[in-house]
């Protein structure tokens, strides 16, 4: 037996109300208003990548504007960030060969958008660190990906933010010959990864700052010279470092590298927090590399092995971030260097 028209209307109203209540109950925050997207615009961005555990509790939330997560989704972090007026955004990448197909590209964007909506997030950070040849199908597909992702998020999540990670300079670094000016125009801003720069080549390869001061500034000049608005460039500074093998350590603390140390597979990342714990036990205290505008220090790991290490810190103009480490495994010939930032 069917329901009369009036009964059907009442049923649909009830179902609609239940849907609203169900959606409200999915909000993990004590205050449901915190599940609304952050719509505030900022003149200045402090963009943080969250990668693990609960260290977000130690952030200076008076300074941060956006947290992009590479870690597992944390409802508590979302609620807390929103309570501070800070955006909490997804991060991710996709195979550029796959998204040359417009249907696959649309499906990927839809999937990420729905995930962001289900988790009450505020946008997406595109971290596409893949080689691209200028004028290739992937070159145009990447530009289209940025445009379509930005349009979809802005349309479906009011006030949302879509950003794109770029290397420290736009001159085809790591074979990433992207459409930088087009991408900058199509997203909210570029996050410039001012780190992972190669060791220096003099007469030999020498370990040094992973984010050297002069090269960092040169990279921004190159982006601006392309016509990109400086307001669309956000500086990225690392909080980790790399370990490299060292052939010898000179009297002026230059660490000459084995050729094998130049391979990505030979470098081991070390967290900034781990490195800074060594500062108190250093032999030298804080020293200064005037060429790279970076501080560093030496310390002895063990008396038995005479294992000497050198830590280099990042620009004095910024917070002191780690940029280099060197060490030796015997008192006569240095064997290892670790180069950070």
From TrEMBL:
This is Guanine nucleotide-binding protein subunit gamma. PANTHER family: DI-N-ACETYLCHITOBIASE. Residues 301-341 form the G protein gamma domain. InterPro entries: Chitinase_II/V-like_cat, G-protein_gamma, G-protein_gamma-like_dom, GGL_sf, GH, GH18_Domain-Containing, Glyco_hydro18_cat, Glyco_hydro_18_chit_AS. It is found in: Cell membrane; Lysosome. It comes from the Eukaryota. Residues 1-25 form the signal peptide. GO terms for molecular function: chitin binding; chitinase activity; G-protein beta-subunit binding. Its main location: membrane. One of its GO terms (biological process) is chitin catabolic process. Residues 1-341 form the GH18 domain. G proteins are composed of 3 units; alpha, beta and gamma. Keywords: Cell membrane, Glycoprotein, Glycosidase, Hydrolase, Lipoprotein, Lysosome, Membrane, Signal, Transducer. The keyword Transmembrane helix does not apply. CDD domains: GGL. It is a lipid-anchor. GO terms for cellular component: heterotrimeric G-protein complex; lysosome. Belongs to the glycosyl hydrolase 18 family. Guanine nucleotide-binding proteins (G proteins) are involved as a modulator or transducer in various transmembrane signaling systems. The beta and gamma chains are required for the GTPase activity, for replacement of GDP by GTP, and for G protein-effector interaction. The keyword Mitochondrion does not apply.
């Amino acid at each position: 037996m069917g329901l009369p028209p009036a009964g059907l209307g009442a049923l649909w109203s009830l179902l609609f109300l239940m849907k609203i209540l169900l959606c409200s109950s999915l909000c993990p925050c004590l205050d449901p208003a915190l599940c609304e997207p952050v719509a505030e615009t900022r003149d200045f961005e402090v963009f943080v990548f969250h990668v693990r555990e609960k260290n977000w509790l130690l952030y200076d939330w008076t300074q941060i504007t956006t947290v992009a997560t590479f870690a597992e989704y944390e409802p508590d972090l979302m609620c807390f960030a929103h309570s501070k007026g800070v955006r909490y955004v997804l991060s991710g990448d996709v195979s550029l060969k796959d998204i040359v197909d417009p249907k696959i590209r649309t499906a990927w964007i839809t999937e990420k958008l729905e995930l962001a909506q289900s988790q009450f997030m505020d946008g997406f950070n595109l971290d596409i660190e893949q080689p691209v040849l200028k004028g290739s199908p992937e070159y145009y597909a990447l530009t289209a990906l940025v445009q379509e992702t930005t349009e979809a998020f802005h349309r479906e999540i009011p006030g949302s933010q879509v950003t794109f990670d770029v290397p420290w300079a736009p001159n085809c670094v790591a074979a990433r010959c992207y459409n930088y000016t087009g991408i900058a125009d199509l997203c909210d801003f570029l996050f410039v990864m001012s780190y992972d720069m190669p060791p220096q080549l003099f007469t030999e390869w020498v370990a040094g700052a992973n984010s050297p001061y002069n090269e960092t500034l040169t990279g921004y000049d190159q982006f601006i010279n392309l016509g990109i608005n400086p307001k669309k460039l956000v500086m990225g500074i690392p909080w980790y470092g790399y370990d490299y093998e060292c052939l010898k350590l000179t009297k002026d603390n230059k660490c000459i590298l084995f050729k094998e140390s130049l391979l990505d597979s030979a470098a081991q990342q070390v967290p900034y927090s781990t490195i800074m714990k060594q500062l108190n036990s250093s032999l030298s205290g804080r020293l200064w590399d005037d060429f790279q505008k970076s501080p560093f220090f030496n310390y002895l790991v063990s008396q038995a092995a005479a294992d000497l290490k050198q830590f280099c810190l990042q620009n004095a103009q910024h917070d002191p971030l780690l940029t280099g480490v060197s060490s030796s495994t015997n008192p006569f010939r240095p064997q290892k260097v670790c180069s950070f930032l």
